What does this fold into?
Amino acid sequence: MSRRLAAGRSLLGRRIDRESPVTFRFDGRRMDGLKGDTLASALLANGQTMVGRSFKYHRPRGIMAAGPEEPNALVNLGSGARLEPNQRATTTPLFDGLEAESQNRWPSLGFDVGAINARLSRFLPAGFYYKTFMWPRSFWKHVYEPIIRASAGLGRAPQKPDADTYEHYHAHVDLLVVGGGVAGLQAARLAAVAGAQVLVIEQQDHWGGRAAVDGGTIEGEHAEYWVQRTVEALSALPNVDMRTGCVGSGVYDHGYALAAERLAPAERPGAVAGPRQRLWRIRARRIVTATGAIERPLSFAGNDLPGVMLASAVRDYLVDYAVTPGDAVVVVTNNDDGYRTALALCDAGIQVPAIIDARSRVTGDLPSQARAAGLRVETGSAIARVTGQRRVTGVDICPQGSDGTQAERLACDAVAMAGGWSPVVHLWSHCGGKLLWDEATASFRPDPDRPPLGADGQGFVLAAGAANGEGRLGPALVDGDAAGRAVIAALGLKLPRGTAPAPQARAPEEEPLAPVWIMPREADAARRSKMWLDFQNDVKVSDVQLAAREGYESVEHTKRYTTLGMATDQGKLSNINGLAVLSDALSAAIPEVGTTTFRPPYTPLTIGAIAGEARGDLFQPVRRTPMHDLLDAAGAEWEPVGHWRRPYAFPRAGESTHDAVMREVRNTREAVGLLDASTLGKILVKGPDAGRFLDMLYTNMMSSLKPGRCRYGLMCSENGFLMDDGVVARIDDETFLCHTTSGGADRIHGHMEEWLQTEWWDWKVYTANLTEQFAQVAVVGPRARDLLQSLGGDIDLSAEALPFMGWAEGRIGDFKARVFRISFSGELSFEVAVPAGRGAEFWQALMQAGAPLGVMPYGTEALHIMRAEKGFIMIGDESDGTVIPQDLGLDWAISKKKDDYLGKRAQARMHMASDERWRLVGLETLDGSVLPDGAYAVAPGHNDTGQRNMIGRVTSTYHSPTLGRGIAMGLVLHGPERMGETLSFAKVDGSTVEAQIVDPVFYDREGARQNV
Amino acid sequence: MSEHEHVTGGPRLLSPRGMVTIRADFSELKTGDAVAAALGPAFPDTNCATNAKGRSLLWMSPDELLLICPAKETEALIVAARDALSRLPGGHHLVVDVSDARVAFAIEGPGARDVLARLTPADLRPGVFDAPQLRRTRLSQVAAAIWQSAPDRFEILCFRSVAGYVARLLEGAAGQGAPVGHLDRDARAGSRAR
It folds into this structure.
């Protein structure tokens, strides 16, 4: 059984503090751990070998690794608003009061109903879902999908908003070093000495990578002391920032990298202020990935039983936490490194019944030490299978070349497997770095000739140390040193004279590994179906072989068919083993089969870290007009318009929104209403070529507009489609003020600048977006002039001095103002612009002065109804990006005299000029009801895809309080030629409603009301 | 102080000032000289600002400056700038009052860079971004200009409609419990003490 070794063996447990006990809960059970433990080491110390069930077959699973590659030990961490699913126990620092819950089991870890799947595994082969749930088709939605979703595994989704906060931080550095092992530290040290600004990040809470556990000496001292001295020296430098608990997540174009820093993980909940994680958004001129390597499992039957662990993890737990996975640990290996684990166990007094080495010739330094220590070394051997139900009880050993049927049983309660090391090439590969197959180590390592390229055409990522295939102490240091020197050269820096060469290191010589992908080599089908490749997604050797037999030759297809490497660990343990099995089944070389694509993030990021501060009221910026607070106090019901908030209506106490809208329309038509029009875009266009420029931008003629006058205009994209509309006022000979739609100001300003900067760069025109400089109020209704005149000022507002479509400048009351006589409602209307800083004051002045006249504010819905009563189009309702002005009967606003305008040529194309296009009409239901928005007019027969034929659709539809019935606009095939015809519009409930085609101008066709 | 970034008094909204957008062809040296002579501050270098007579000229783009001045001078300086530019050959320009279009916040102290670096992708490293430089960039999701008006004093200019959003952003970034200590080295000791 796994347990903590007693104190007294002073070399063990270097990360724990035996004087600082902490308690935690696992599945509700109280357990004891020590400060410095990870959740995984504490669970093992408590004898908790089984920590979860597997995803598909619900097999018992134990802790397998000691780092982020852990596939099995995923837990729900915390509870309530701090519940986090799928947390790796191996990277979760233990703290007092931690609560963890195992996953993938029901009702309990010991007794799990889903384990029946394991009995059915013969019927759940690779591609099972694809094969089974195809038929009958209707069952997918109603039967299969709900069941699959309910039984789908892994953690519970939190039900409450995350109680923690997160932040982003943008850093710019010369060099980012990912990984604080000896190679990364050496590279950082050189670059720092040469004067580079360096950020070094390390995912663990301590520096040095594997050096401290795996031993060896640097410059005559234990490697750990060199690490300590180097870290101290680096931390003292002003140009170096060292961060532990900070994992490199992704590398992107142009030296952009993401890293997630864990802040204050301990003593939750409540006690720690500030963010829980910091997402680093790093722009680095060069990146050194010194991310180490991950040990591979070996594929033998029963390699997933709790108690089977990676050999390196076994010695990590032993050395760092004084925890042993068992009392008798069999080591199985294909290389010399596995012997380190056997020797460490032996030193700690743990029994090692045998070292099973797949190689037939074993003569290296480490095996010699093992033999000298009296350990039994079985060469040319394999594990035929692991015995035990919920945990290891023994292993059957057999010759590696056999089929495994003739075997000797060895009793043990844990197995340490050493299958060789795979460099962590993820970050190198994220942005396109290519890999080489290295025969000697049987692994993919970065190809230095094909790095990810930066904007300067040079590689901006350098791999170093074990991540570069140089896993042994001495070569790793030399490689880190070389990476540091390469970075210095690339940055144009120089090392000070007399900088020492790479430090000298000593470690035992190791002999080559034997590439062993299946154990034993001739294993029968029964054994192959118990050899796990992907532990988290339950993919076995037999599944990959089945995929190959069924014709899946591409590794990317096999991955998706079998789900190999698709779990939350992204196949950190399984990818190389899986593709080796695939290449063997295809009789192809491993490099020919290749790897799947490495995608960020390296380890899962919590959504909160990605969101950063953008949550709650900072989720999106909300734009507020100068009158926002006043309107809010007046009871505005808000609606989003772009990032703006605009009042939809102002319902009074006890009044429905609909009734409020009706009241606002009636009051505006009968007395006077106020609309906050500040959101309208206001772009100043000035210069000798301004008229010519606007003639190109608008479909109609703007250069002929007289100063003091306004004109309505349409803007089209170069593809001819209507994109914006608004009123243009000519300020003086050279200057125009262009009003855009509320959502369109920034886009239209950008559109103008793009044409000026890229096509018409020699035209003398400047633009300025003045949208935010002015507050604008539409004063609308028969009493509008009375209201403005009552405020006094120096502008003559009479019909003679300021006629319809004129504008004037001066003072209204004591407000500096521009007054535009334009109308979107059909009523007498003045739009008054005042400096934004006085907008709220101006609004209040109007409300006060207007009280005797019956003034009321109105919202966007009343605005919409009044414009629809007048047949005015609305961008976004009547237009949708596929509509041209001609569709809307706006030919009058398209100049025939101009040689050109943006969209003119496009509008001449055959399809645009076709009379089969749907065109704008008014619609009136026969029964006075309101047509459903977006409803289609249906015609007899069906189209090619079996739908009912459609000949038109509703674009705007309202109840008109002015007319007392429903009115609508729509686009209809041959619409204007069909006045008086009745169409059927389909409703959602399957019924239809009849409506007559009428003129879209429903009210005051002559325009008498606005022209007073 | 140990729990927070080293900023003095937190971010604060500055009272309204005059602001004027000036667009002209500054690739002609005399255009810039004419503006400088009319307004006081010298013509600014790229990404920089200049000060004189309580007025500042901010470089916004190759053909755009922003004048910041006392509110009561705004109208007279607009006239002065227009007159000076009109006298040049061609004389094509745009000078317009934008005093109400933007608001400004100030944040000061050695920790101010680390506060802003939580929100902006701009490179704020000392030696890269020093007074009197200015960057047009973004703060989180909105456009903003960051102007180092004096060493370790930063003015943030943003549009009026998002003033509330930016105020909340800055308060949030300055009020975090854990100093980053990346650009502000003195804060690092605290942040490493976990």
